[in-house]
């Protein structure tokens, strides 16, 4: 991935149960310091997504790394940035613990 | 592995996406485009730059499709149709150079 260039990535999610699941996801970036340079244009996160029983879907993320990443001396040794997602089951009336997100 | 639960001063602050969320492609309408894109990544050794035309094709597919959709649990019928991706000029999605190449190639045809 080239900083400044838009890029596409795919995740896959499966609901292995026999009931529909409504989930909501949040993400994490490591190394921590690279997270400020990670910009999502569009993804599947932060909104409720419904998966039917046994359903498997592709989940795209369209993003770019801020070009200033290449100028930051602290990032000089970073050649791998890992993006991960955690799905929570959305329950009616349940407040999700999404740190820092209003 | 859960989200970073440090007790130190640093904690990861998630930010929402600029253009919101992609509706799920429940019926795999754009799966063929996705497969072509992933095939390109496999062949190029995961070079994102090399596969930008196919990424663009995938997003175009999304913009052209309307599928039954709607937010669950809010009293809405699933017969409402939503685009798989809101229309956005491709130049604004970082594909300006690819569009310029295409329009330059046209007069020669």
From TrEMBL, chain A:
Membrane topology annotation: Single-pass membrane protein
Q: What does this protein do?
A: Exerts its effect at some terminal stage of cytochrome c oxidase synthesis, probably by being involved in the insertion of the copper B into subunit I.
The family database entries (Pfam families) matched by this protein are listed as: CtaG_Cox11
Gene3D superfamilies membership: Ctag/Cox11
**Keyword Membrane in record:** yes
InterPro entries, alphabetically?
CtaG/Cox11_dom_sf (IPR023471), Cyt_c_oxidase_assmbl_CtaG (IPR007533)
Q: Does the record carry DNA-binding as a key word?
A: no
Which top-rank group of organisms is this from?
Answer: Eukaryota
One GO cellular component this record assigns the protein to is: mitochondrial inner membrane
* Subcellular location per the Swiss-Prot or TrEMBL entry: Mitochondrion inner membrane
What name has this protein been given in UniProt?
Cytochrome c oxidase assembly protein COX11, mitochondrial
The record's subunit annotation is: Interacts with CNNM4/ACDP4. Interacts with RANBP2.
* Keyword terms of this UniProt record: Membrane, Transmembrane, Transmembrane helix
Give the Gene Ontology MF terms in alphabetical order. copper ion binding
What gene does this protein come from? Answer: Cox11
Originating species:
Casuarius casuarius (Southern cassowary)
UniProtKB/TrEMBL annotation, chain B:
Question: Residues annotated as region Disordered?
Answer: 1-20
An example of a Pfam family matching this protein is: CHCH
**Does the entry feature the keyword Cytoplasm, yes or no?**
yes
Using the record's annotation, list all stretches that form the CHCH domain: 30-64
Q: Which PROSITE patterns match?
A: CHCH
Query: Is Methyltransferase tagged as a keyword?
Result: no
In which compartments does the protein localize?
Cytoplasm
Instruction: Point out the signal peptide segment.
Output: none
The similarity annotation says: Belongs to the COX19 family.
Name of the protein described by the UniProt record: COX19 protein
Name of the encoding gene? Cox19
């Amino acid at each position: 991935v080239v900083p400044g260039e838009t890029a596409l990535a795919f995740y896959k999610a499966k609901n292995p149960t026999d009931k529909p699941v409504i989930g909501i996801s949040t993400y994490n970036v490591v190394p921590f310091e690279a997270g400020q340079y990670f910009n999502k244009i569009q993804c599947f996160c932060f909104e409720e997504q419904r998966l039917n029983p046994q359903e498997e879907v592709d989940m795209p993320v369209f993003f770019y790394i801020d070009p200033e990443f290449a100028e930051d001396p602290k990032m000089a040794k970073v050649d791998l940035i890992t993006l991960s997602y955690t799905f929570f089951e959305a329950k009616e009336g349940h407040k999700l613990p999404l740190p820092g997100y209003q | 592995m859960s989200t970073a639960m440090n007790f130190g001063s640093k904690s990861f602050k998630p930010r929402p996406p600029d253009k919101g969320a992609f509706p799920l492609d429940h019926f795999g309408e754009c799966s063929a485009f996705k497969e072509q894109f992933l095939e390109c990544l496999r062949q190029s050794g995961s070079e994102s730059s090399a596969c930008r035309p196919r990424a663009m094709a995938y997003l175009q597919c999304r913009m052209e499709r309307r599928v039954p959709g709607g937010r669950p649990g809010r009293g809405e019928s699933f017969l409402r149709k939503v685009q798989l991706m809101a229309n956005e000029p491709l130049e604004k999605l970082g594909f300006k150079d690819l569009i310029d190449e295409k329009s330059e190639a046209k007069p020669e045809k």
